[in-house]
Write a structure and sequence with these properties.
The structure holds two protein chains of two kinds. Chain A is an all-alpha fold. Chain A folds into two domains: 1-38; 40-97, no CATH class. Chain A has helices at residues 3-32, 41-44, 58-61. Chain A is elongated. Chain A starts with a helix and ends in a 36-residue tail after the last helix. Helices cover 55% and strands 17% of the residues of chain B. In chain B, helix 11 (282-314) packs antiparallel against helix 13 (342-368). In chain B, the strands form three sheets. A six-stranded mixed β-sheet of chain B has the order 5-6-10-7-9-8. In chain B, strands 1, 2, 4, 12 and 13 form a five-stranded antiparallel β-sheet that branches. The model of chain B has no long low-confidence stretch (mean pLDDT 87). The radius of gyration of chain B is 31 Å and the shape is elongated. The longest helix of chain B is centred in the N-terminal third of the chain and has 36 residues, at 23-58.
Chain lengths: 97, 378
């Protein structure tokens, strides 16, 4: 087989797989809506507000509820020393503190 | 007469054999290019999936959360604030909430403790997240001691463990009854952590928030839209993690493309000179370089995207988890639901593949337009 044929077939296979990714994603999204895969009712009733991404500090565990001073809470000249604090920013500036 | 298709096939054959002659150099180029696409595509997939999870979670979030601030810090909110807020026109329901954090000195993990009066929990029986169960190595039905300010630890029986599929919401949760919550933290009666307010008409939310702020100067109303905005900003391209990865990836790509664009090696110039001297047109040489660019960039793009998809959605993004984990002892083992934004993939394609092919063609075009003799001697 010509090397160009092998190359074009490989590219075609790759394109086919990449084209299938959105279909797979769609399928998994539909599966996630199935009652078996939904979060338990007890959790929905808690009206949670934040994703559990980092648990080391309250301003990264609950960025939407923590006040803007919480990263600097240790003492008056404190800096935010938690690693996740450099990645998860505090809540967007609003009219409230 | 050779057809256009056959001409392209012949040139592609020649391009592949030409790349094969410098296999080591081109394989390292392909690997690096593939890694770059992998990092960028992983980031795109990871952020899109987290945005979707956040949007799903916030469907159940309260319309308005009211906190009390004392000296800039969140403080406990008295019961009478709830009664005052419930009297505001447009407020349908005010639910005082009890929640807080528990530092487990046994393993150094932080848990989120929430009081609930739902039948899932009873006095002495708690429901816990799978992350808590993992970190304490406990199972349903076993006893779970927690240190309380009193002399005796609070002994809770694990009534239920939330499934691993809800880790992204509940990995660190301990749900217990209000009575157990008061015992665990010696929490004052008549005070709450915050108030969850439900408003009849969503359009009136800003007005209700303004009324609450006017009624209680030390209150801090947080709208659901503000929470949504917080998550948009976290996963925004300007966000810490995204900016960090994006900048490093873009910088590497600029160096990479710059290296390609700033000139050809003597060997490459000699090759172009020989091709021109045996009768190749400038257009043939450019077509050859176009196919050489494609032979590197297309497999790199496809492999990078497929590997990124597997990394994020089949293996739960192990390369990103240490970044988010930080010093956290307890880290959720979440399986993200895939989200593929085709427009984002197209943007990634045009920002990586097209500049690379262009950077390959331009220096070759300069050499290909030279006299063959000059090209070979230069």
């Amino acid at each position: 087989m010509r090397s160009s044929s092998r190359f074009l077939m490989t590219i075609l296979m790759g394109v086919s797989v990449v084209t299938l990714l959105p279909l797979h994603a769609e399928y998994r999204q539909r599966m996630s809506l199935h009652p078996e895969n939904r979060p338990p009712q007890a959790l929905a009733a808690l009206k949670l507000t934040d994703l559990c991404l980092a648990t080391e500090a309250r301003h990264t565990r609950h960025p939407s509820l923590a006040d803007r001073h919480s990263p600097f809470q240790e003492h008056p000249a404190a800096l935010d020393f938690f690693p996740s604090g450099s990645l998860i920013l505090p809540h967007a500036p609003t009219h409230t503190p | 007469m050779i057809t256009t298709r056959e001409r392209h096939r012949n040139i592609l054959d020649f391009a592949l054999s030409s790349l094969g002659r410098r296999a080591g150099r081109n394989l390292s180029l392909l690997t690096m290019y593939c890694l770059l696409i992998f990092v960028l595509a992983s980031l795109l997939f990871f952020v899109s999936a987290l945005k979707r999870e956040a949007a799903r979670l916030l469907e159940d979030a309260p319309d308005l959360v009211v906190q009390r601030l004392v000296a800039g810090r969140q403080d406990l909110i008295p019961e009478n604030y709830g009664a005052g807020i419930a009297a505001i026109r447009g407020v349908a329901h005010v639910e005082p909430r009890l929640w807080g954090y528990y530092f487990d000195s046994w393993n150094g993990a932080n848990y989120t403790v929430i009081a609930s009066d739902k039948p899932t929990v009873k006095d002495g029986i708690a429901a816990i997240g799978s992350g808590v169960a993992r970190s304490r190595k406990i199972h349903a039905g076993e006893l779970f001691p927690l240190r309380s300010p009193g002399t005796e630890p609070l002994l809770l029986e694990v009534g239920a463990i939330f499934p691993g599929t809800s880790d992204l919401m509940a990995a660190d949760l301990i749900i217990l009854t209000p009575s157990d919550f008061h015992t665990l933290f010696n929490f004052p009666q008549g005070k709450f952590t915050d108030l969850a307010v439900t408003v009849t008409n969503r359009k009136e939310l800003p007005m209700v928030a303004a009324k609450i702020a006017a009624l209680y100067a030390d209150s801090r109303p947080i709208l659901k839209s503000e929470i949504q905005r917080t998550y948009q900003s976290i996963f925004d391209w300007r966000g810490g993690m995204i900016l960090l990865v994006l900048l490093s990836a873009v910088l590497s790509f600029i160096i990479f493309a710059w290296d390609r664009a700033t000139g050809l090696s003597a060997e490459e110039r000699k090759e172009i000179g020989i091709l021109k001297s045996i009768g190749w047109d400038t257009s043939d040489v450019l077509l050859l370089k176009f196919w050489e660019g494609c032979a590197i960039s297309l497999p790199a793009f496809l492999c990078g995207v497929i590997a990124a998809y597997c990394h994020v959605f089949f293996f739960s993004a192990p390369f990103f988890s240490p970044v988010l984990k930080g010093w956290s002892i307890l880290y959720p083992q979440f399986q993200l639901v895939p989200v593929v934004d085709i427009s984002q993939l197209l943007v990634l394609f045009f920002f990586t593949v097209v500049p690379y092919i262009t950077a390959t063609i331009i220096p070759n075009w300069r050499t290909a337009t030279m006299d063959p003799d000059a090209a070979m001697r230069s």
